[in-house]
Each structure stands twice: as C-alpha cells, then as structure tokens.
Amino acid sequence: MAFRVETNGRLDGGSPVPKYHQLKQILKEKIETGEWAPGDLIPSEPELCRMYGVSRTTVRQTMASLVSEGLIVRQQGKGTFVAGPKIEQELVGFYSFTEDVMRKGLRPRSEILSKGVTAASKAVASKLGLAPGERVVYLTRLRLADEEPIMLETSYLPEKYCQGLDQIDFRGRPLYDVLGQDFNVELTRARETFEAAVADEYEASWLRIWPGAPVMP
Amino acid sequence: MAFRVETNGRLDGGSPVPKYHQLKQILKEKIETGEWAPGDLIPSEPELCRMYGVSRTTVRQTMASLVSEGLIVRQQGKGTFVAGPKIEQELVGFYSFTEDVMRKGLRPRSEILSKGVTAASKAVASKLGLAPGERVVYLTRLRLADEEPIMLETSYLPEKYCQGLDQIDFRGRPLYDVLGQDFNVELTRARETFEAAVADEYEASWLRIWPGAPVMP
DNA sequence: GAGTGGTCTAGACCACTAC
DNA sequence: TAGTGGTCTAGACCACTCG
Fold first, then answer.
1. Residues of chain B found within 8 Å of residue A110, distances taken between Cβ atoms
2. Do A124 and B186 make contact, defined as CB atoms within 8 angstroms?
3. Within 13 Å of residue A192, how many CA atoms lie on the same side as its CB?
4. Residue nearest to nucleotide D17 (CA to C1')
5. A19-82 in CATH: which number?
6. For every one of its 217 residues, what pLDDT tens digit does chain B have, with 9 covering 90 and above?
7. What is the CA A38 to C1' C11 distance in angstroms?
8. CA–CA dist A153, B134 (Å, integer)
9. Positions in chain C where some atom is under 7 Å from a protein CB
10. pTM for this structure?
11. Exposed / middle / buried, residue A208 (Cβ in 10 Å: 0-12, 13-18, 19+)
12. How is domain B107-171 classified at the architecture level of CATH?
C-alpha cells in the first residue's frame, strides 16, 4: 500500500460553518480534553492539510485564531506547541459571548439598550472600590445569536476609566430612550428576583461555570 | 497615457518589513492623524490592492490586524469603516474585557459574585423574547485588572439555553456565597441609581450608538 | 446587478531551526 | 539538508448590502 494517511475526520464543505472554524473546534477540543497536553508539539501545517483535506491558508487561518486565543504558540522553524494552562483566574468567570456563539456557528450581535453615567450606589461603589457617589458609567446590552436574544447584560464601570467619553460626537444618530418606566419596573422585579433566588439557594449551587464555559475570549 | 493609477505610496518589497506590516503602518497613520475620521468609509480591498500594488491576501492580512487592534470595523456588503475612539468601542457592542485588559499589559481576572436561576421579570422577559415567568439564569461578576476592580456586570440568559448546566463538576472550585443581605442592599441602591439617572436624563443623551457600531471583535 | 467583505484553493519563495 | 512557520501571489466562489 502506497499511502496511508492519518485523518482525524473530514470537514464539511457544504456546512455554513467555515472550514477554518470547524477545524478550530476540532483542535480546540483536543487541547481542552488533554489529548494534546501543554507543551506538546502538534501536527505541522502540511500534516493538518493532509489530515483534514484543506489548504494551507485555511489551516493558517485556524492557527491564527488559536494563537489569538492563547491556546497554541508557534515558533518558526520549530513547530506549533500547545500553550501552557491559562492562569486559573482566567479559567473562572471569563465568558466570551462572542466566542461561545461563534463556536456554535451562530452569528453574534449586540444591541445597546441603554447607557449613561450616574453616581455609584453604596453597593456598587464598594464592589468597585470607589467612594459612594463617585460617578460610574452603566451600560445595558442585549446580546443575540442569529438574531435571537440570548443574554441581557448590565455593566458598571468607574467613570475615571472612561476619560474622553464626553468628546464623542453623535452626528445625528438616533438616541435610544429607555430610561424611565421600564427601569423602575425592571429593577423592582429584579429585586424580587433576587429575593426569590435567595429562597432557592440550592439552585444556585448547581451553577458555577457557564455552559460552554472554560473559555478564553 | 494608458494608465494613471492613483497610488498613495508603494511598498518596499525588498524590505525585511513585511508588506502587510508596511501597509498597516500607512493606514494606521491615516487614522491616527485624522485624515480618516471615525465613521469614514475607507477604500475597499480591491482599491487598496491597486493603490499599493499588493494582493488581496496581503490587504486582508493588514485589515485583520487593524480589526484586532480595534482601529477599523468591517461589514460584509457595506465596507470598512474607521472605528471610533477607544473608549467608545469599549462601551459599544462587543467588548472583551479580557482582551482589553491584556492589551494594556494588565492581568485580567473575574470574580463571580452571584448566580442562580429565577423567573424572568416582565422587563427581562420582554427583552429576551420570553414569556414572563420563564426561567432565566443570572450571573453577577466583578472584573478586575491587576486586582483592581474595573467593572461590575450582571447578565441574564434564558435557562433553556443552559441545558446541561447541572452536569457541571466543580472540582473543588470555591463556591462563592453572596446570596443574601448584600443583594437586597445592592438592588435597592441600584434602583435609586437608575432613578437618579432618569432625573439626569440629559446625561444619557451624550451616549448612544455610533458609526460602525455593529462591532465584531 | 454591482460592489463589498468572507472563505478557500494551489501554488511560490523565504527565514529559521534542527540534524 | 529537510522540515517548520512566515510571507505573498492570482485566482475562485460565496453571502451580504444597496440601489
């Protein structure tokens, strides 16, 4: 037998999910499951081309993405290696909506529902290490995957980290108006929500990390 | 005269500096000097190929790099736009805390302050396209850069997208206990916060989306 | 339909690292 | 010298946006 090529599976050319992305998921899984351990030399570009039946450009597109995520390290003339374990800090709590959605082959999008500045409440201030009353920026975003709403997210951050915000020009862009009734309602409910959650404390226990989570954005 | 090609400068093929990098510096300068202002449509890929005498691959390599630095925003079918000031990008659309912090040479970390499931309030349900009362997962995270608290973030997402969450293993990760007193306080304050924000409605007016807004990280 | 960016191919030559 | 990743070309087809 002349050739016996080791293949780890073919990529689906008809899929709406790009090949480089399919390949990325495959390689990522090998890394995350430990099949490829940190420090391991992974197959070279030509090898991957053969194994998965794609061009070198596609392999390189995959690799570039994995590098940017910090999963692999490349060295000219030597090869491509699995990167060391991420700092534990990064493992817990980081969740990239975009990454996660794209990994599923969907298209992520964000809508800003509201944003503004306000004085930090005592609770927010203490969490952020500010004096109560210091100004914070808030932002509420709706995140969608393939136009389906997936996540509602509100963030606060100290205004002092947002220098220059007031220099933004608006050039006639529509001003979204959400401040008002909606928020009173939402926050009232949110409060009830949290109170209910306390009662359901056991439920909180099954949560720690997020669905697809270990995730580096 | 047969040809008169508009060029903004030729790239040096003999240079040890790659063409895509030379081109990147050129485009970067146009953006940073304001020759291309935020929101401006910049030349298309074929145009840049002609202008600088390089292949589309090289132009795209340049573009990818500028995108990853947040200097431009691309939209299929529409074109490539100059991104707004940094701060804006951070607040609008997709924002990767981790990337941003790392870009600044700091170490990102997240703390989960709370999470759980609860029934969706009317407001949350409507935003997420759920029926009121459908179950949602909530998560509150504190994000830090070099141990300095930078952002407080709360997210809601439909429980139905979190299948299998209960199969997560915790492997000794600490379970943070925050449900309780703290949250009543925080939410009460938060409500005051938003009410204050309403009073300061004019402040909200300086913010909204901006040019290239549908931003992909 | 024309123009844009997104994906992909099959080559090529180079600089670097190892043997 | 052989193998690796880094750069680059000249095509191709597609999905999307807009008039």
1. 93-94, 214-215
2. yes
3. 13
4. B77
5. 1.10.10.10
6. 333 334 556 777 777 788 898 999 899 889 888 899 888 899 999 999 999 999 999 999 999 888 877 788 888 888 998 876 654 444 444 455 665 565 555 566 666 565 566 667 666 676 666 776 677 766 666 666 655 666 667 777 666 655 433 222 222 222 222 222 222 222 222 222 222 222 222 222 222 222 222 222 1
7. 33
8. 17
9. 3-12, 15-18
10. 0.49
11. buried
12. 3-Layer(aba) Sandwich (3.40)
